[in-house]
Description:
With 249 residues, the chain is α/β, with parallel strands linked by helices.
Amino acid sequence: MAEEFLVAKDLHKSFNEQRAVNGVSFTIGKGEIFGLLGPNGAGKTTTIRMLSTVLEPDSGEITIGGHSVRQDAEAVRNIIGVCPQELALYEDLSAIENMVFFGRMAGLSGKDAHAQAMTYLELMGLVDRAGGKVAKFSGGMKRRINLAIALMGSPKLLFLDEPTVGIDPQSRNNIYETIMGLRDKGITVLYTTHYMEEADRLCDRVAIMDGGQIIKMDTPYKLKGEIGSPEQVTLEDVFLKLTGRSLRD
Ligand SMILES: Nc1ncnc2c1ncn2[C@@H]1O[C@H](COP(=O)(O)OP(=O)(O)OP(=O)(O)O)[C@@H](O)[C@H]1O
Ligand SMILES: [Mg+2]
């Protein structure tokens, strides 16, 4: 594997008495696209929230780009971008105003924020809608803006929490192409999804999560090869085999 960019060691997090994340460990290599797959409530978002410095683990250690999340959250925040599962946008602002706002929050000068906003709107195929109010955007366009915002500040590591959930094929394709393009630029990506086919095409490695634990982790090809011919079985089959349940339930 390439140089380790993210190291998560034995993460635990409970809410009241319930264990949301129960002993999760993995590493992500620099430039790798790593998929976290699992059914509703598996602990994917809780894991991302701990990795992205917004939720403190009960125990465990996280290092990103050589910085400890516990000891130097600020340094970590400077090199990560987060595309949250719930859209985080100001509906009454235009696309460009949203992007400049979040860019300024990320510490960019007004000029840089504006320049980056235009670059990433272009990348997401939304430059002609830059001045449009987000409230008027389709769900897929909002998802694309949500991802464009995560790119503000040009992070080295991106957390994408179900960036393609419930959107039109055009937006899905655009997001898919964007992620591939980011990988070509050497950006590291942690990605969660319910869409197994998408994970299979995009991810260098995937971790299958269930009940707060990683139950299997490898390349999609090897995981499929464990239960049959990699050309014939799907990651969905792998999940079903491992848990006895379908991922989509
Ligand atoms: N802030 C919270 N307070 C209480 N319980 C929580 C909180 N956040 C998550 N949980 C619980 O922790 C468990 C894991 O939730 P999490 O959101 O991490 O799952 P997920 O894998 O992201 O699911 P989904 O696919 O639905 O997004 C769930 O049982 C959830 O109800
Ligand atoms: Mg989630």
